[in-house]
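Q:
Got a chain?
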Amino acid sequence: MTFEEVMAKLKKRVEEEADPAKLANLDAVFQFELTGDNGGTFHAKVADGKAEVVEAAHENPNVTIIISLEDFAKMIDGQLNATSAFMAGKLKIKGDMSLAMKLQSIVG
């Protein structure tokens, strides 16, 4: 899956299909650094029960998630659990760990 395909799928999932109840108490910026061939950086801004995906780095994210493009694609397809990826060293976190724990409700 290419970066563009991942972005399209993620935008649809986050902006159109996300459960507002799961996002209701969140006010944060999640930055994603996708490594590997065709990787890239983007962020998801969550506020007021809505999430917006922006194809650019954010100046001051609350948490940064570093993962390969391949593993992130598996994660949004439900083939890889975020917690399992973290425990296996496939997903690295910089910043607010408690926000990172809510990642599954955003991308899952």
Strands lie at 28-35, 40-47, 50-54, 63-68, 91-95. The domain at 3-103 is CATH 3.30.1050.10 (Nonspecific Lipid-transfer Protein; Chain A). The radius of gyration is 12 Å. The longest strand covers residues 28-35.
